[in-house]
Model the fold of this input.
Amino acid sequence: MRHYISKLRQWDVISSNRVDAFVANSENIARRIKKVYRRDSVVVYPPLFTDKFPLITKKQDYYVSASRLVPYKKVELAILAFKKLPNKRLKVIGDGPELAKLTQLAKGSGNIEILGFLEQSEFASVMGNAKAFINSSFEDFGIAPVEAQACGTPVIAYAKGWCFRKLQ
Done:
């Protein structure tokens, strides 16, 4: 296996030297490109349609998590945390291969609701009425947290990744 990994690294170095310009979807990825390839990159943020998320200032008493339900999004972590907080409500929006597993994990908790896939208008309503958005994963960019902010919903997230900046 070492032989193949070595060949793959050689190919990567040769290929990267033929790149005219690197494009990153966030400052986080731009830093990785600089670290690995010692090249600058242009940041082009993903398209966002924040106008579909009206500002809602009067919040309801629940938290929301929304993402593709795959392991690296760590929605399981949010569910496990809220199972230990029975007086706090969590609504999970999303679909994916972990839907059945996460539904089973939340079963019987009474404070966790798995909503599955929602149409845009309902998604914006649930997102906008939430007390806060829970982002459990390390994201390169993260569209859902930006959508939450667009409708006035604060974001609770790791202090790394998508758009974290250290305050000076």
About this structure: The chain has two domains: 2-43, 50-157. The domain at 50-157 is CATH 3.40.50.2000 (Rossmann fold).
